[in-house]
Amino acid sequence: MALEKWLSEKDIKKLEALNNPKVIQVVEEFFSLCKPEKGVVIDDSDEDIEYVRKLALDLGEEKPLHLDGHTIHFDSYYDQARDKANTRLLVPAEKKDEYGKHINTIDRDEGLKEILSIMDGCMEGKLAIVRFFCLGPTNSDFSISALQITDSAYVAHSEDILYRTGYEQFKRLKDPNDFFYFIHSAGPLTEKNVTKNIDKRRIYIDLEENRVLSVNNQYAGNSLGLKKLALRLAINKAINEGWLTEHMFISAVIPPKKNRKTYFLGAFPSACGKTSTAMIPGNSIVGDDIAYLRINKDGEVRAVNIESGIFGIIRDVNPRDDPEIFKALTTPGETIFSNVLVKDGKPYWLGMGNDIEVPKKGTNWTSSLLGEWEEGKKDEEGNELKFSHPNARYTIRIEDLENCDEALNNPEGVKVSAIIYGGRDSDTSVPVYESFNWNHGVFIGASVESETTAATLGKAGVRKHQPMANLDFIVVPLGKYLKAHYEFGKKVEDDKRPKIFSTNYFLKDENNRYYDEILDKKIWLLWAESRVHNECGAIETPIGYIPKYEDLVKLFKEVFNVDYSKERYEAEFSIRVDKFLEKLDRIEAIFKEEKMMPEEFFIELNNQRKRLLEAKEKHKTGIISPFTFLN
Ligand code: SPV
Ligand code: MN
């Protein structure tokens, strides 16, 4: 067998034990193309997993830090975030038009030819690691098996922290062809162990083969098959099979003094408070990024976290705002830091707390290109280089968090009672409201927008359309994706359908100051939780149901011992009709252009506009106080 060229007898036996001809074929095909010097097959044993952990250190892709188990990994200066321009969906030429303007496609034949030629010999001189994982808990209706081949020990190690092992699960596959596979190569590396040929970075998604090919990158959002690459394949699979794959956290809201847990899912675009909502103190976390949703035999909507770890933004993780994560990052245990500043084996990041003195020199994400960092150092354009990258990350296991929910690995998933859609909006929406029903909620999710912040490139305050916070990952026409949400809702009985809420933590006053404190999101979720249990009323407005003043007063007092003023309530919960109407125009302009749009979407859009115009006419103002609707 050709595999003998790369693999030991023992490793070949490991592959053969899977009894899966397709796995053998994929390994042979891509070993032949990528031409690694050697290969290794990793199973679920502690011994094999320890081998990968050590390999990342031996190869220098990670370096030890001062706390036991902590390591640092750097990505190339030019590889610090997802590469949207070079992440493309392979589509047959005749289908290209169906995908509209928002999905980055390339002709399948042309794309394959290009990427396979880039991958030819991309692993020369390196070791190819073959790994098996399970997306979602093992032994579950949700489980999807995944094969990863990578020449990066950092990638293989990260996946160990972030996903469940799946070698044994592969042996149980009902259909031996039903798995995802991911071929990754960091490509040739510089002497600093970062990708050399960034100009040839490509991430191509092939739905026909349920595979993603990714080359010349290391940043986890580009390289790790099981994260955003699998998300794209799973969206397609879910739509074909009648369930949902969403870019959502899963968290249990635990109200004080009530003996219960209510599971919420939440979709928020990047940098809109998703992980911090999942991590609200007092609640417990199942996942912070990606969920599969299915309807079980009792008609309940259930969800699992497809991951078992967090690849989180480290910026602003400090003892006050993110106590659980801060604690995990400052305690010995298996943790990978990436793209932070390191000095004397200690990691430093932006916003880690005022009482920590940041060194003026050290190694950071700029060092592989520009040498050691020191304060005042500038990039080619003359901008000062921060000591830690704004998108620097940590990789940890959820089990290592004190607020890990007991249902993390439950093969049945958790019962979904509510779904939240959040955006970043300084001047339009209220902090929290409830949709009238599922279809209205889907419309709210489809209309999520996020304003750019000063921290991202380009002009601040520009609104980006982010349907379900999933736009970057949707690989079917947008209309088809939305239709799947309407269809899913139809399959659930009224009393079992999750309630859908909208949140906005970023509303500002006329002096450009946020109304909300960082932890006020706890109150908005507790209000939503009490709505799930029909424990409080609400005010009907043109946009949906908003909280009553007295209910919020009670919650703020009970939870934070804070007096929530009538003035603040009125300012935050006024319905800004004109702003909402402007938003509707923006949303309509985007979806009007899309193919296969479900009728339900435009019904909701028109009803929403009608309600807003009627209210404006009736109350003769573009900003309506919440108290007005009580009369
Ligand atoms: C996100 O940007 O949504 C992330 C990080 O979760 S990444 O892995 O880059 O996608
Ligand atoms: Mn994400």
Structure description:
It contains 18 helices and 33 strands. The protein is of the alpha+beta class. It has three domains: 2-62 and 77-242, 3-Layer(aba) Sandwich (Phosphoenolpyruvate Carboxykinase, domain 1); 246-307 and 411-630, Phosphoenolpyruvate Carboxykinase, domain 3 (Alpha-Beta Complex); 312-398, Beta Complex (Phosphoenolpyruvate Carboxykinase, domain 2), CATH 2.170.8. The strands form eight sheets. Strands 1, 4, 5, 6, 7, 8, 9, 10 and 11 form a nine-stranded mixed sheet that branches. Strands 12, 13, 14, 15, 16, 17, 25, 26 and 29 form a nine-stranded mixed sheet that branches. Helix 17 (577-592) runs antiparallel to helix 18. The longest helix has 21 residues, at 599-619. The radius of gyration is 25 Å and the shape is globular. The mean pLDDT is 96. Bound molecules: sulfopyruvate (SPV) and manganese (II) ion. Sulfopyruvate binds at residues 82, 220-221, 227-228, 270, 289, 311.
Proportion of strand residues: 15-25%
Provide the list of bound ligands, each named once: sulfopyruvate, manganese (II) ion
Largest sheet: 9 strands, mixed
Uncertain residue segments:
none
The CATH class name of the largest domain reads Alpha Beta
Question: Average pLDDT, to the nearest integer?
Answer: 96
Which architecture name of the largest domain does CATH use? Alpha-Beta Complex
The number of helices is 18
Evaluate the radius of gyration: 25 Å
Q: Which bin fits the share of residues in helices?
A: 25-40%
Shape: globular
Q: Kindly identify the CATH topology of the largest domain.
A: Phosphoenolpyruvate Carboxykinase, domain 3
Q: How many β-strand runs?
A: 33
Give the domain tally.
3
Distance between the termini: 81 Å
